[in-house]
Amino acid sequence: MRQSFSEWTKSGAPWVWLNAGAVAICLIMVVGLLSLIAVRGLGHFWPADIVQTTYVDNGHSTRLIGERVQTQDVPVEQLSDSGIKVTEGVETMQRTLMKVGNRDHGGTDFIWVLDAFMQDSSKPDMLFAAERREWGNFYGYLRSIKEDGKEVAAHQGYDRSAEYEALWNQFQQRIERALNIHDQIKDIEKGQIGSINYELERLRLKERSLQLKEVTDSARYQAIDDRRAELNAEYESLQGTLLDLYTAFNRDSITAEISSGKIVEFKVASVVRAFLPNEMGIGGKIGHYFAKIWEFLSDDPREANTEGGIFPAIYGTVLMVIIMSVLVTPFGVVAAVYLREYAKQGFITRVIRIAVNNLAGVPSIVYGVFGLGFFVYFLGGHVDDLFFPEAKPAPTFGTPGLMWASITLALLTVPVVIVATEEGLTRIPRAIREGSLALGATKFETLIKIVIPMASPAIMTGVILAIARAAGEVAPLMLVGVVKLAPSLPLDGNYPFLHLDQKFMHLGFHIYDVGFQSPNVEAARPLVYATALLLVAVIAALNLSAIQIRNHLREKYKALEM
Fold first, then answer.
1. How far is CA 356 from CA 24, 349, 362, 419, in A?
2. Is 473 exposed, middle or buried (0-12, 13-18, 19+ CB in 10 A)?
């Protein structure tokens, strides 16, 4: 029999279909958003062809060299207001955003050009792109290589020849040499000299501590002086090595022709990578693409965070989340156990639960202000007075850092862990508790050995939710520890290895900084998408790890629940 509309409505089927449709729409929106971020972010690393064109505007012709980045249609009214002559009867014209690079010579990386004014566009094989440590990308024709100011190889014209091939191969060899020297310099400056400076500072603080304690034992002061002399001798030796390396590092330079026809010169040491995108095959472009992605994941940032990698931000994000999880889990579990198992269920307990639930809805910036005022200035100031008087007036823990950021986010997420743990404890059958007590176990032993292990999947659920929220928070971190660029990682080989007082980088703040504080907006935009995608991936990886632990615990204690 055909079901009437009223019967179909009463059966609840419309609500089932409505919920299914809502879920489907949400999934489509999430997948669409992630796809958009992935396309715009990951597409940035593909080596685009370099176009050479003649741009004719009001009878004045200019040679342009660069990459096509974006194309759009614009109303002719907008162009007329800009003083550009347009053809009558035309409503829109197409314009292209070109990345012309050479910011140190042209003043800008990107320009808008009208496609109708571009003539004789081509993609010459000899056009090369160079990624530099400063001033962004360089585009042009390689003309010569110099060593200590003397020309050792050169090529003129725009034809490919054996002479040009030899020049290009020599350029690549000198780039590789400069990169190797740069790695040695970085190892000495940030590794060996960094460790020496760190130990010298510890000796200074140790000597200051002895002075504050009015210690008069000259042997202890002499031991500090002897060790300081050894470190200074090591430092002087490394400085000599560095001087030789910098001399070799800055030995080579190249000259190249830019779009205006001018010949410019710059150091090979400033080049990170040089390539000929117009002659690269699909295999070469794929190799370049994955090399760029690896650089993005493993290297330090450069050029105001608009070039290079974001490894310090990944490292700081993961380390902060791990420390936050270690802090929030025991406090959340202990609070939930007390409220469910020990506290008398009455008015005060209900008020506490309501307060905990309300804390979950407090804006995160409020936690940041509280963390700055209470943790950093109050607790940190007192910690410095008690344990680090020799470092004053410079603060040690009385300034934003990794520890205060982790504690602030632990405070922000502890209500989630409390609620999830209480739900898990509620689901444990009362008969299990009574059976344990009947067999002679104390209440504490029952909790530790029976109840809490069985509730561990629910505890892990709370931790998963806490990680998901904390990893993406930015507002409180801006007040309690995160910075635009950290000079070193908070975990290194210097005692005590984990430096909880140091500031750190964070993926969420990196997105904010690159997207809204960068002076080069067009160059930063693709990195915003790429970093956002990476942040989602990091959060997903952390959550999947916690989910795997939760599933293991659920399988382990499933038999007890039956």
1. 33, 11, 10, 8
2. buried
Query: Tokens 């990886």 map to which residue?
Result: 541
482 beta partners? 504
How many degrees, rounded to 5, is the angle at CA 14 between CA 9 and CA 19?
150
Report the sign of the C-alpha dihedral through residues 339, 343, 346, 351, in that order: negative
Sign of CA dihedral 438, 441, 442, 446: negative
Pull the structure tokens for residue 535.
Answer: 């942040």
Round to whole Å and give the CA distance between 292 and 270. Answer: 17
Q: Are 436 and 450 in contact (CB under 8 A)?
A: yes
Identify whether the C-beta of residue 500 lies closer than 8 Å to the C-beta of residue 324.
no
2.50.20.10, 3.30.160.160, 1.10.3720.10, 3.50.50.60: CATH of 311-561 = 1.10.3720.10
Alpha-carbon distances, residue 474 vs 251, 367, 461, 478, 488 (angstroms): 44, 11, 23, 6, 20
- Rounded CA-CA distance 400/403 in Å is 8
Contact 468, 543 (CB under 8 A): yes
Give the per-residue pLDDT at 241: 94
- The two tokens of residue 95 are 């314009």
Domain ranges within the chain, ordered by starting residue: 146-254, 311-561
Instruction: Say what the pLDDT of residue 1 is.
Output: 47
Structure tokens that stand for 493 in this block: 């080989």
Q: What is the pLDDT of residue 286?
A: 94
Q: Tell me the whole-structure pTM to 2 decimals.
A: 0.88
**Distance in angstroms (rounded) separating the CA atoms of residues 219 and 445:** 54
**3-state SS track over 247-302:** HHHCCEEEEEECCCCCEEEEEHHHEEEEECHHHCCHHHHHHHHHHHHHHHHHCCEE
What pLDDT, on the 0 to 100 scale, is given for residue 77?
73
Cis ω for the linkage preceding 496 (within 30 of 0): yes
How far is Cα 133 from Cα 35, in angstroms, rounded to an integer? 31
Per-residue pLDDT of 68-88, as tens digits, reads 988 888 887 766 655 566 666
Distance CA 183, CA 206 (A): 33
Kindly report the three-state secondary structure assignment for every residue of 158-175: CCCCHHHHHHHHHHHHHH
CB 253, CB 24: distance < 8 Å:
no
Measured CA to CA, the distance from residue 274 to residue 172 in angstroms comes to 7
pLDDT under 50 in the chain at which residues?
A: 1
What is the pLDDT, as a whole number, of residue 270? 93
State both tokens at 334.
């202990």
Report residue 225 CA to chain centroid gap: 41
153: phi > 0 → left, psi -120 to 50 → alpha, else beta; which? Answer: beta
